[in-house]
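Subject: for your reference before the review

Hello V.,

The reviewers asked for a structural picture of the protein, and I figured it would be easier to keep everything in one thread rather than splitting it across files. Below is the amino acid sequence we used in the manuscript, unchanged from the supplementary table.
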Amino acid sequence: MKLATNPFTQALIAGEKQLGLWISLCSNFVAEVTAHAGYDWALIDMEHSPNDYFSVLGQVQAFAASNTTAIVRVERNDTVAVKRLLDLGAPGILFPMIQSVEEAEQAVAATRYPPNGVRGVSGATRATKFGRITDYVARVEDETTVLLQLETSHAVEQAEAIANVEGIHGIFFGPGDIAADIGKVGKPMDPDVWALIKPAAQKLIAKGVPVGTLVLDPEFATELLNEGFTFVACGTDASLLAKASDLLLATVQGGLL
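And here is what came back from the structure prediction:
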């Protein structure tokens, strides 16, 4: 049995635009509802949700039955956590709060077996179909998506140097934390935030580095993709449910006599 190609990794390498959805409700059933919507990628979030390894496993399994690639945002840049997620079969990892070239190198190393990295070896895992995938060790490094998230003005200033680290497939800008870092907490759409992000992103785009982000404004998501961003998440499962619930209630209440 051979390791399947990761379509998201290959799409990033090819520079193909990828639309994504943020997944934070920690439910494999909810994940299955969204999995067949047709998004190119989904982000299962462990940093800002109650997700644990078992809930992530259920969601990865739900997305595996669809054409959407499920990337997992690990809680922190932690070698052991990354090892466990990759053994569970996560097709890729988003590393939060990368601040330096050294932290970027640590992140990549966590996804690589020795001598290229520090990932621990286990044969009978879900990732290897319990030992049945015979070329896993040889090919997994080429297929696993590695994304680094920049979330402070300091990190944004180092974007080009961080992006030069070998083994990275894309740079993800986190507008929420960048906003907080420059005194605009709670205002991820503030013009000052994007005045920082966009020039840095364009420098990376000019060098052929895929860049991405999460925004909840569909028109702005479209604008970013048209400006050269490669992978953009344009909503979250939680916000979609909240907004739809509010709209339904307001619509019915508004029609009452």
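For the response letter, the relevant points are probably these. The domain at 7-254 is CATH 3.20.20.60 (TIM Barrel). The longest strand covers residues 18-23.

Happy to draft the paragraph if you're swamped.

O.
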